[in-house]
Structures are given as C-alpha cells and as structure tokens.
Design brief:
single chain, alpha+beta, Herpes Virus-1, Neuraminidase, four-stranded antiparallel sheet, 11 helices, about 25% strand, elongated
Length: about 600
C-alpha cells in the first residue's frame, strides 16, 4: 500500500544506512538507528569509547550502556526501540501482515482473496469467512471494513506485558509512570494512588502530543528558515570565492609584474654599463694601436740616423731622446679617472630567499562560529547591572558569554557571590533576566551549542545549562578535580583549568580526562593558576594564568604557541577577579561574540 511505502521512506528508514530499520534501537535523545549502524559509528569516536557510551550521529548526545565491560559490538543489545517505531514496523514494515489474503484460509493451508478487514481481530477475511465471522456471538458486532476500494486501515497493535505474556498492557500508573497489565497492577501497584486505564488517559496524552507536534513544527519552520538562510549564504559565499580568487590572482599577477620590471631594469642597466665599458675598451685599443704605430716610426727614424754619415744628425737625435721628445711622441695614458675597471653581478641569495618568503599576497581569514575573533573591531553595545532582586550580596560576575536564542540576544554570566548563573535579554522592549541558583560558587562559563552553556562549580562539578533564554539545568557532571576556567573545543570535548595540580585538562562530556596539558620551560611548569580559558579561531586554547601573571596560547596537544609577556619579563597583565565591578561592560563583535576585559 502507498501508506506503508511512505512510512518506510520517512519514518522507518535508518539515516546512516538509508535502509529500513534492521533491529532498531532508540537512544536517550529519541533518535532511532539500526543497532549495527550506531555501534559502527560509535567505534569511530574515541571519546565515546572512553565514555562507555553510544554516540548519536545526529545530535552527539551519549547513551550510557548497561554493561560497558562487554564488547562494543554488544553495547546496543539492551537498548530497545520506542513503542511508536516498533508499532510502525510491526504494522507497516517488512514482514507485516498481508491484507490481500484471507488470514483464516491461510492458516488452513488455503489461498483466498480477502474482501473485508476486522479491526478488532486485526485479520483480513474472505467472503465465506466473513459470513462465519458474523455468525459467532463474540464477533457478531465487530466492524468490518470493505477492502474492495483504496482504504486506510487503522490497526490496533496489542502490546503484551513483558512479564505476563498472555495479558495486554491496558493500565497506566501515573505515580510510577509505567504502563502495566491487570496482573501487574494487582501485584506491584496496589499502593499507588493514581492508576488509570490507558484508554481514559489517551485524550490527555494526545493533547500533549499535539502540543509537542506544534513545538516540533515550530522548530521545523525555524530550521527551514535557517536552511534557506544557509542556502543563500552558499550562493553569497560562491560569489565571494570568485571575487577572492580574482583578487589573489591579481595580487600574484602584480607581484610577477613587479619582479619582471625589476628584472628588466637590471638588464637595461647591465646593457648600458656593458656598452660603455666595451666602448672604453675599444677606445683603448684604438689609442694603443696609434701609439704602437708612432713608436714604430720613431724607432725607424733612430735607425736611419744611426746609419747617417753626418755626426750632427746623430747628436740631434740623441738630444731629442734625452729630452724625452721621442719617447713622449704619440704616448697616451690609458688609465683615465672614472673608467670602468670591471663589471660583476652580485646577488644576495639569502636576502632574495627571505624576500620571497616574506612576500605577502594576502591572508585567508576564517572566522568560526562561537569563537573569539581577535581581528574584529569591538563596539560598545550595552552595560548591564548583574545584581538582581533576591541577591543576598553584591554580584561578582566572573565569566560571560553571548547567545542568540530565537533571534533574541542573550547574555549569560556567572555570579560567584550569589552562587548562581544569570541570563539577561530583552523581550517586548522590556529588559528581562533569569536566575539559576546553585549549591556552590560558579566560576568559568563556555558556550556548548546555540542554546547550551557549561559552567564550572566549586564542588568538583561541571553543569550544563539550557538557555531558552530562561535558564534550565540539564545535567551535572562530577569530576575528580576542581576546575575553574573552561572552554569548548569541539561539540564533544572541553578544556578546563585546574589549580591543583596546575594544568589544563581535555575532557569528554562525561567528565573523563582525555589528556592533561602542563607545559614546561627550562624544567619549570609554566601554568600556576589557569583562571580563564578561551578557544581561538584556529582551535588553540588561550589561558589567562593568574599565578604567572601572563596569557598563554596552547595547542590541545600541549605545545606552547606563545606566552605574553615572555618568560623573561615581569609585567603585570591580569587583574584579580575581586576587582571586577558589579556592572559588566560588553564589547560585542560583528559575530555577537563578547570580549570581556576585566
């Protein structure tokens, strides 16, 4: 039937393998997958293995397993599917009852075409069996549905008690919040004050389901709007990519043109100097040849004089040579001032290499959601007094973050003195706030998801809080250390600062320590008191360390990127938390991330 096909496509299909559920299991987040699929996905996530939990591929929530010592392949065996999913599978999934053949005839080994359906007996009947069905007093008044047309058959699935196999689940114990059979009510729920039939409670349950359906529809509309926005962003980003690609190519082309101009300038200069040098050398050759000719003529003249019979000719030639007249005839000094002696090309290979390395065509700047953008220009948006009605003492805000909840800008801060977490927002042009009281003093604060934060508390716990923008406590995570500063690295890992011993621990969402970071410098630990932590846009950890009076940048693996001030300086760069005023000034960036200077 078309209805069965639609149900299989939209509700009975595993989102991992895209096939109809095979041995399904429903996790604590109410997402359902094939057991094999969710186990295989969990095996790829070390944080889930260490936490002894099944990890939901859709929302990353963890489901604790009942027997973690068993092999991972068996972790999902005890996780049952929801009644709704199992009912749909029984009614419409593979192997569900056939409505085209008569159920009674099929049981007798015969094959007959069904003509009606009994909704009470949950069986299809042929004409002959239908007549017999009408004759029995117990089934005489059952409603029969004609199967000759295209009809939707409403099947009632009988859920049997797990302890009393022959009895149907018909009652609901409101005190225990369990559905039971008649025998279980007598044995286990005699002292319960509110045990009603499941049928009588159906209107209220359906009303709640309708409200939940409306909430889901609103969430669906919100997500659809976000998807449309993301689709628009994809188009915008493609255009931006083309523009940035063009700019990078233009920068490279200009750099190449500049290098080509410098090359041509050197070649022209070399040509001019070489031509002048060669011209000078050619002039020297010409001058030398003339001098050689003159000396040859003078030598021949002396030779003729020596052969002369006149003594006076010899004497006069002698006087001329003695006075230097003969030697200087035709003589030219070849070494003039300013002459080019030699041309060489001197290249500083190291300098050229450094220049090429330092050549900057530009930078690709990536801004991550929920991560501090150090390059953005801060703009003062508002100043909020964090002291509210009911506070026993002056507020002492220690950490702060900003969220956008259903288009409502919300500021969340910890109040150490009043042992609470507070949120501040504007609704209907009215300033509103919410206060969540705790058993101990809170310290650090970090954003987990778009509407969730994690807070370190001074009783060796980390709490998760939902921001709606009113505050709702979600969970309490017990840790082995007292943590102060905290920041979210990934959806499933946290970084938290400890004073004893001084370190930054990488934690999963159950509080287990995955890695402990305590860098050394000259054999001495750098961290002394890591009070506040923040995640950079590149995934590193900024640590404000009060003990060493400096800010450090660490990788999640423990390498030191930088320290400020350096190890050899002693400037005071961090103020102690007691100097924070009761009013918090927020510098909102373009991404609605807050920079808080204390």
């Amino acid at each position: 039937m078309a209805t069965s096909q639609k149900l299989e496509e939209h509700f009975l299909t595993c989102t991992i393998c895209t096939e109809v559920f095979d041995n399904p299991c429903t996790l604590v987040c109410y997402h359902t997958f094939c057991r094999k699929c969710v186990v295989n996905y969990t095996k790829t996530k070390p944080e889930a293995i260490s936490a002894k939990s099944l990890l939901c591929p859709f929302c990353s929530k963890m489901t604790k397993v009942s027997e973690p010592d068993r092999p991972v392949e068996e972790w999902a065996d005890d996780v049952k599917p929801s009644f709704v999913i199992q009912g749909l599978l029984d009614s419409f999934g593979p192997g569900s009852k056939d409505t085209t053949s008569c159920t009674c005839c099929h049981a007798e080994g015969e094959a007959s075409l069904a003509s009606v359906w009994c909704s009470v007996c949950d069986e299809s009947l042929c004409d002959r069996c239908a007549r017999m069905h009408k004759r029995f007093p117990s089934s005489r008044h059952h409603d029969l549905i004609d199967l000759s047309g295209e009809v939707n058959i409403a099947r009632k699935r009988k859920v049997m008690c797990t302890e009393h196999k022959d009895e149907c689940v018909q009652f609901l114990c409101k005190d225990c919040k369990k559905v039971t059979c008649h025998t279980c009510c007598i044995i286990y729920h005699r002292k319960c004050e509110s045990v009603v039939t499941l049928e009588s409670e159906l209107p209220a349950l359906k009303s709640k389901l309708l409200n939940e359906k409306e909430n889901l529809r609103q969430k669906q509309i919100l997500i659809e709007k976000k998807v449309d926005t993301v689709k628009s962003n994809v188009i915008t980003e493609k255009d931006r990519y083309v523009q940035m690609e063009s700019k990078i190519k233009s920068s490279g082309r200009k750099a190449r043109e500049t290098i080509t101009l410098k090359e041509n300038k050197l070649l022209v200069e070399l040509k001019e100097i070489s031509e002048r040098h060669i011209e000078q050398l050619n002039a020297d050759i010409k001058s030398g040849e003339i001098s050689v000719q003159m000396y040859r003529q003078q030598a021949e003249l002396i030779d003729q004089t020596l052969q002369s019979e006149c003594d006076m000719d010899v004497y006069e030639m002698y006087q001329g040579c003695d006075a230097g007249d003969v030697e200087d005839v035709g003589h030219t000094d070849l070494k003039e001032k300013g002459r080019i002696a030699r041309i060489t090309f001197r290249q500083d290979s190291d300098k050229l290499s450094r220049a090429v390395d330092d050549l900057q065509l530009g930078e690709i700047d990536v801004l991550y959601d929920g991560v501090l953008d150090l390059a953005a220009t801060p703009v003062l948006r508002d100043t909020i007094s964090v002291t509210v009605a009911g506070d026993q003492s002056d507020a002492r805000p220690l950490d702060v973050t900003a969220l956008v909840i259903h288009d409502t800008h919300t500021v969340v801060t910890t109040d150490h003195n009043n042992m609470s977490v507070k949120s501040f927002y504007t609704r209907d042009n009215q300033s509103c706030h919410s206060k969540l009281s705790l058993d101990s003093q809170p310290w650090g604060l970090t954003k987990l998801q778009h509407n969730q934060v994690a807070v370190t508390v001074k009783n060796k716990t980390i709490i998760t809080v939902e921001v709606n923008p009113d505050l709702v406590l979600l969970s309490t995570i017990t840790t082995n250390k007292q943590y102060y500063g905290i920041t979210s690295l990934t959806p499933s890992t946290l970084a938290a600062g400890s004073r004893s011993p001084p370190c930054v621990d990488i934690l999963d969402m159950t509080g287990n320590v995955l890695r402990s970071v305590s860098p050394l410098c000259n054999g001495t630990k750098i961290l002394k008191n890591p009070c506040f932590l923040c995640t950079t846009r590149t995934g590193n950890i900024l640590v404000s360390d009060y003990g060493s009076q400096r800010v450090l940048c660490l990788t999640p693996e423990g390498d030191v990127v930088f320290t400020y001030p350096r190890q050899d300086t002693q400037h005071r760069c961090i103020l102690w938390a007691s100097q924070v005023p009761t009013q918090v000034t927020f510098w909102l960036l373009s991404t609605l991330r807050i920079m808080w200077f204390i």
